[in-house]
Each structure stands twice: as C-alpha cells, then as structure tokens.
Design brief:
Blueprint lengths: L1 H24 L15 E4 L2 E4 L4 E7 L2 E6 L5 H10 L6 E3 L4 E4 L5 H38 L5 H34 L2
Helix pairs in contact: 1-3, 1-4, 3-4
C-alpha cells in the first residue's frame, strides 16, 4: 500500500516537473527557440489551436524564427495570434512564411523574465507539496483503517518527505539553469 502511494506521488511530482519544463521553454532567452511559440493559441476555424499543430516552426538563424503554415490561409490568423500574445514580437509575413526577428533582451526585460521564472518555480513547488499533502492524508487514512501500522505510517511519511525534497531540489536546479540562460548576454 505504501509502495503504491509513493509510486503515485512520484508520478504526480514528475508531472509537475514536466509541466514546469514545458512552461519555462516558452520563456524567451536571447536565442530563437521554436518552444517560444509552439504552444501559442491560434483561433483556427473558431477553435483555439496550438501553433505547432498549424505550422512547422524552425530557427534558421540564432535570432530568427520561421513559421511555415501547413495551410497558407491560416497565415493571417497566426500573425494575429503573435501580435496579441505577450511575446512582444512583430511578425514579418511574405505570403508563404512568417519570420520573427528575436531582438536582444534588455537588462530590464531579463530581470522581468527572471521574476516570471521564479513565479513558475514557486507554482511547481506548491504543486509538489500538494501531492505530498494528499499522499500523507492517504497514508493516515490507511493507518486509521488499520491497513498499515503506525510504524509503517512513519516510514511512509519519511519516504514521502525524501521524495518531496528530491523534487524540490530538481525544481530549484531547473530554475537556476533557466535564470542563467536568461541573464546570459
């Protein structure tokens, strides 16, 4: 029972890490990365659709993103979505592809992005702690129902805490790496 609970906790904590990594991939560093716009929602036939389902996205140069729609009629919609986003980028449309020139980040913008990263890290830490809280509750319920002993409960809680600490450290490491990436000129 304890093993299954710990396994479930680990799966959910891994999910929090994965969500964090996907989330941080969309935060701009000085280089062009397709992850910057992949998840951008485009209103396509009245349905919000991630850009990566509507176009191929590449970075032919370090500071340029090229978006080639599968359906050229969606070009205007994609352009509109980019303009409406908080990316602060101006699309250049030549009728076939959209080019996004990624300007170098200012010191002020870098600091703002670091704050955004810190907020996302805290959200992930909270998610991991919530998983711990839920699992501790499950373990205590098992003990109340006499499915596990008090000693097993203590061992389970200790294992759960070790797991939580490990994932919190991983979140911190990911954050430091991203912060370094953003501050790199």
């Amino acid at each position: 029972m304890i093993k299954e609970t710990l396994k479930e906790a680990e799966t959910r904590m891994k999910g929090a890490i994965q969500a964090l990594e996907e989330n941080l991939a969309g935060i701009r560093t000085g280089r062009a990365s397709p992850a910057l716009v992949e998840r951008l929602q485009v209103e396509y036939y009245g349905v919000p659709t991630p850009l990566m389902q509507l176009a191929s996205i590449s970075a032919p140069e370090p500071r340029v993103l090229m978006i080639r729609p599968f359906d050229t009629s969606s070009l205007r919609l994609i352009e509109k979505a980019i303009m409406a986003s908080d990316l602060g980028l101006t699309p250049n449309n030549d009728g076939k592809v959209i080019r996004l020139n990624i300007p170098p980040l200012t010191e002020e913008r870098r600091r703002e992005l670091v704050k955004v990263v810190h907020a996302r890290l805290e959200e992930s830490r909270i998610a991991v702690r919530n998983v711990r809280r839920d699992m501790v509750k499950d373990l205590r319920d098992f003990e109340k129902e006499k499915l596990i002993s008090e000693d097993d409960l203590k061992k389970g809680e200790e294992e759960l805490q070790k797991l939580t600490d490990r994932y919190i450290q991983e979140i911190d490491a990911i954050g430091q790496k991203k912060e370094k990436e953003i501050m790199e000129v």
